[in-house]
TrEMBL record, chains A, B, C:
Protein name as catalogued: 4-oxalocrotonate tautomerase
A Pfam family assignment: Tautomerase_3
Transmembrane segments: none
Domain of life of the organism encoding this protein: Eukaryota
InterPro entries cross-referenced by the UniProt entry: Cis-CaaD-like (IPR028116), Tautomerase/MIF_sf (IPR014347)
Species name: Mycena indigotica
Chain ranges of the Tautomerase cis-CaaD-like domain: 1-139
Amino acid sequence: MPIHRWIIPKGYLSAEEKGVLSEKITDIYEGVGLPRFYVVVFFVELEGHDFYYGGKPAKSFVRIDVEHIARNFGDAPVAAKKEFLDKYEAVIEPWIKGRGVDWEVQIKDICDRDLWHENGRSPPAIGSVEETIWKKENRPVPDDELAAIKATL
Amino acid sequence: MPIHRWIIPKGYLSAEEKGVLSEKITDIYEGVGLPRFYVVVFFVELEGHDFYYGGKPAKSFVRIDVEHIARNFGDAPVAAKKEFLDKYEAVIEPWIKGRGVDWEVQIKDICDRDLWHENGRSPPAIGSVEETIWKKENRPVPDDELAAIKATL
Amino acid sequence: MPIHRWIIPKGYLSAEEKGVLSEKITDIYEGVGLPRFYVVVFFVELEGHDFYYGGKPAKSFVRIDVEHIARNFGDAPVAAKKEFLDKYEAVIEPWIKGRGVDWEVQIKDICDRDLWHENGRSPPAIGSVEETIWKKENRPVPDDELAAIKATL
């Protein structure tokens, strides 16, 4: 987590564009302290007969669904949420607004870290040394390795 | 939002049937005051080896997942929820119960409007003049246009 | 419900493996008292250009998304959540950890039973005689049949 699901009309984005977009979305979270590998992005391409916007085939509409878990807004003020949404909109702009389609973004603040595992274990606490190591290594570092790295700090 | 995800066995519905179903689902929400374009419906067709119901290939089972955001039940009484579910069941009946399959409907009451954007901006407040204009125009009317329309009211 | 969505790299699991995995996941819930048919499992296979992990094509990464509704953790202690996650991890181990991929499991505790229908009706209350009959029959037994069965108990 976070996980971003992009539902797009068939053929709307090229493989290369998806790659660039995924990198840029990942950058947002790395910028606020998350390990890059926490970020999952996937694209679902649908034909007009499988995707409807207002009851009509969605041929120029993109639906973006985001779920947060590693970090949550919780009781954060509305301004913090707007700031994040606006940052996200700015990042995706060239592929979305810039092309004249309609689009919708929804972020779901899913929040139980106790129901989340990476490679079979609970991710380290927010702001912990362990999390910093996971971030630096960019992988779910196993406990024994983690202990060894901590011993060298 | 709302967004309806229908997971169906491969080939269960024709393109035409999907279109009709999407229109009828959209009608429900228009009937309670939402702009039609708020409603997104999409179909995911799966082969038996990718879709399981009780551990067996789901060849005559339909899974319907609904997420609400533009309007929520919140603290509404159970009766209001049942009423909505029953209305929904009545609408989809010809394609579902009427064909003898098993099916499951689940509505998720996702509720943070501050984490929702249409075409890069927060949708207007529930019951506002702006929302009425969005509904009438059936599109996310940009702010400048919205001001111009309001000036003529 | 529960519903398990497995997002996997294209071709990662065979049809047979998916079947076995679905049965074993279903077993977990049957073991804690749920009717087997409550459990829905589906697999989404994605190409590397449609699925990203840390901004890179997810060629050896599996994303497992679980939603609970028939039973919820609610205020259960963290230990109960860990216990369930660990049980789940043990069940999927041969297809996941045993093959050296990276993976993520997230359980969402979706909890409004009043917004859930099986075959057009609200499922019986937890622990009720009716639920026991649904479990034994392994299908959403209609009310009239349910009354007939109860009369024989």
